[in-house]
Amino acid sequence: MSREDQSLGLYVHWPFCKAKCPYCDFNSHVSSQVDYAAFQTGMLAEMRHLASHLEQPSKLRSIFFGGGTPSLMPPDLIAAILAEAEQIFGFATDIEITAEANPTSVETAKLTGFKSAGVNRVSLGIQALDPAQLHFLGREHSVTEALAALALAQTIFERVSIDLIYGLPGQTPVNWQATLRQLLGLGLDHLSLYQLTIEAGTVFYTRQRQGDVLTGSDDVVAGLFEMTNATMEEAGLAAYEVSNYARDGHECRHNLTYWQAHDWLGIGPGAHSRFDRQGQRVGLATRRSPQSWLEMTALKGHAIETECVETPMGWANEMLMMGLRLKTGIDLNLIEQKCGPRQLWLDQNRLATHFEAGLLQFLEDHNGDRLATTAEGRLLLNSLLADITR
Amino acid sequence: MTAPEQIRNFSIIAHIDHGKSTIADRLIQMCGGLSEREMTEQVLDNMDIERERGITIKAQTVRLDYTAKDGKAYVLNLMDTPGHVDFGYEVSRSLSACEGSLLIVDASQGVEAQTLANVYQAIEANHEIVPVLNKIDLPAAEPDRIKTQIEEVIGLPADDAIAASAKTGAGMAEILEALVTQLPAPIGDREAPLKALLVDSWYDAYLGVMTLVRVRDGVLRKGMKIRMMGTGATHVIERVGVFSPKPTPVDELGPGEIGFINAGVKTVSDAKVGDTITEERRLCDEALPGFAPSVPVVFCGLFPVDTNEFTGLREALEKLSLNDASFSFEAETSAALGFGFRCGFLGLLHMEVIRDRLSREFNLELISTAPSVVYQMHMTDGVRFDLHNPADMPEVTKIAEIEEPWIKATILTPDEYLGPVLTLCTERRGEQVDLTYAGNRAMAVYRLPLNEVVFDFYDRLKSVTKGYASFDYAVDNYRAGDLVKVSILVNGDPVDALSMIVHRDQAEGKGRAICIRLKDLVPRQMFKVALQAAIGGKVIARETIQALRKDVTAKCYGGDISRKKKLLEKQKEGKKKMRQFGKVDIPQNAFFEALKMGDN
Ligand SMILES: Nc1nc2c(ncn2[C@@H]2O[C@H](COP(=O)(O)OP(=O)(O)O)[C@@H](O)[C@H]2O)c(=O)[nH]1
Ligand SMILES: C[S@@+](CC[C@H](N)C(=O)[O-])C[C@H]1O[C@@H](n2cnc3c(N)ncnc32)[C@H](O)[C@@H]1O
Ligand code: SF4
What we know:
The complex is a heterodimer of chains A (390) and B (600). Helices cover 40% and strands 23% of the residues of chain A. Chain A contains 16 helices and 17 strands. In chain A, the strands form 4 sheets. Chain A has a 9-stranded mixed beta sheet with strand order 9-10-8-7-6-5-4-1-11, with helices on both faces. In chain A, strands 12-13-14 form a 3-stranded antiparallel beta sheet, with no helix packed on it. Chain A is globular, with a radius of gyration of 21 Å. Chain B is α+β, with helices and mostly antiparallel strands and 600 residues long. Chain B contains 13 helices and 34 strands. Chain B is globular. Chain B starts with 6 loop residues before the first strand and ends in a 5-residue tail after the last helix. Bound molecules: guanosine-5'-diphosphate, S-adenosylmethionine and iron/sulfur cluster.
């Protein structure tokens, strides 16, 4: 097996927020009291249990505290989880440890604590730099708070990323570009720029069904996407994934684990793990509801609810689905090693059509077997996948 | 066995909903054919689809035992007739098995177009006709006006028409009595060699192939070896029976009687409707006049949505044709739709009924191409042939002339809607033959090209008359027409399933309409798609579907890729419902939807 395959990531899900944003479909809940000690016990137990699923646990190269709002976690809890992780798996020397943080003043105050606990990268949910847009998105923080949080984070952490959402109704290229320029002026090395998506089960979903217009039109948003790519590239932060932009070497290693279909374990409510075991791709998922996750971990030491083993076709689909999100694409030989000859999982006739149309390409610099989307193709990725996979 | 003098054979002529089934039920009940409990409503229409649409497809009979006022016992054979013109063939042979008809007219509605056609057939079959005005219990009933209408429009004396209500039971006794006193008894020679008409045949899951017969001369008995004079096949009779209305075995059937036989016939097509049955060892000298076999006049392609269901479709068609020899089918391949069948039908309703049955009884999901008529092609080299499929149209330069079928259509409408009806006929290249008024209803007779009627004429007629018009037609003749084939091109490739033959004057309008409609029906693709209508190499209309701009999941997060996978699977599932045409994915229903347009 190649060295790439040995890479292991750990995801920790914190399922609580101060308020539920109207667009958000993540497993996040609002709760007035959280029993941190119980969560700590549960998470540590679940981590130990999950480690036993691996053939041979390797060192962790990345850890990601996501949510929900992990910046609501006490730094002690984070420290305890990290200590346990190091003990079980060991840390690679260059390990990346990210925590998501919301830029409210309360959470910002805790940044030093996170740093001391071992976090070395933060991702701030800035979302927008316009009061009306923040209000539309139902955010709890102001523009000033967000910018202050960012400035503070940058003094504490070497690696800081921010999340923004665009494609809001009425948002113009001028408005969006101004936001981007303002932030680029602050010396960021990584940004996640997401097109607003209306997800089932959210307040926005219901409103949309009732006829409210909550996003820009496809044509407008496609235009914004193209403009974003150009603006970011000019600033030296080319898109390395559909929605992620970084200076060379500043990519989020943890998220690359997903996109490159490496192994990761996920602990906490509704966390997902995926890893190779005896030449097969295994997927696990835990209970989503925080309460029943707690009960189940207390009882069994883990809250794994589903376990599935992918068919070779399913695995190939997964690797294409994730790999084609990346600018660097995916090595078809790698998929063949795991899933069998490509005619089984790839419709090569359709590939040709999309090469011609400039939506797909083989990357020259990777001995010619690395399939990747072009910038235009990336915007149509779902259609492309439905077309080329079997 | 009953003496002919004690038998009366009759059919019922009525427009849909005028009360044929209800009256039949009443008569059956009065004659004690079924107990109260067995009396499921409307015994006669026993196919689901018939019941739903209120039409009769197969001939059915019921034997009623009636003691008349003269104190004698009579056998009354009710032969149900299909109410629709598409099944005119069945109507004619049912009528030929009877001596008289009840003409039922809804006293609140009056005579309708389909009633007319069937009455004329009955008159031609020398029937004695007993007019009945039904639904006189309704406040809106106008028996006197309707009597006048029957006299004016049909030319039948209606003074003695029976005022009836199947609802209250009024007039039912009079109907039974009139059947005995007004209809002639059948005539036949019991001693002569067997001569019986094969009225209908169908497949019964329990009894096998059932053959409905009307005996003219001689006697039919169990164990008798019979010969079908048309096909020459011989069979031994295993069972003789009558419908009372349950199939009930009897010893024999004599002259004038109507009943069924089972005779070891394997398939319905071996029991040819209209054939003459005689006895093998004592042949009759002359067959009964046969029927001109019905010829399909409307064709369409039927394709399974799921290509794997092709065999299933073939089996279903074979099964249906067991019971309905009047439709034809042959395998057809379409670049757009894959493997399917080109099917021929007696008319539009027949087509709908078969399509309905395929989807309902066989659970098949089908796409059908636009209905088309049969064109007579005259080629420059003298060859002539029938064209059933626009896709097979030869090159224009090799065609000397194309002839198309015309129909004679009769439309009855309340006069307030006459204007729009006439406009509709004119738009469809109609030629007026006759226009008469009877009371506040107008009767318009038009000659129309059938190809103008097969699309959506019914729908349009219904909508311009709010459903109050009735319509009937008969194929008239073939006439030369200035017809062209319009091809629809998707990114330059012709879509065979969408090509159509239309009058030159309408080519551009129809071509454009299809392109515009397709534009809405075909989802945006990853590239621009050109939709064109063309006559030969000449493009007459064009629309463009802009390329899809954006289809990507922006955030992919937290390692939960199962949801994304589901999305992908769903998208692929959706694609399966599409037909790949060149590079373009076209949803299957788009083909038919595109052709279903109105004249807007
Ligand atoms: N008021 C009234 N309704 C009737 C009468 N006869 C039939 N109907 C109703 O008219 C409708 C059509 O009758 P049906 O026998 O199904 O007509 P068919 O299509 O000619 O067989 C049904 O709803 C019957 O209940 C009648 O004498 N009076
Ligand atoms: C787990 S979420 C939130 C992290 C953090 N709790 C916050 O709200 O700042 C990660 C990111 O996904 C993005 N996101 C969430 N829902 C989205 C949606 N419906 N459409 C587009 N982006 C979304 C937001 O930018 C968000 O910062
Ligand atoms: S966007 Fe962030 S803060 Fe808002 S509900 Fe989702 S996870 Fe919580």
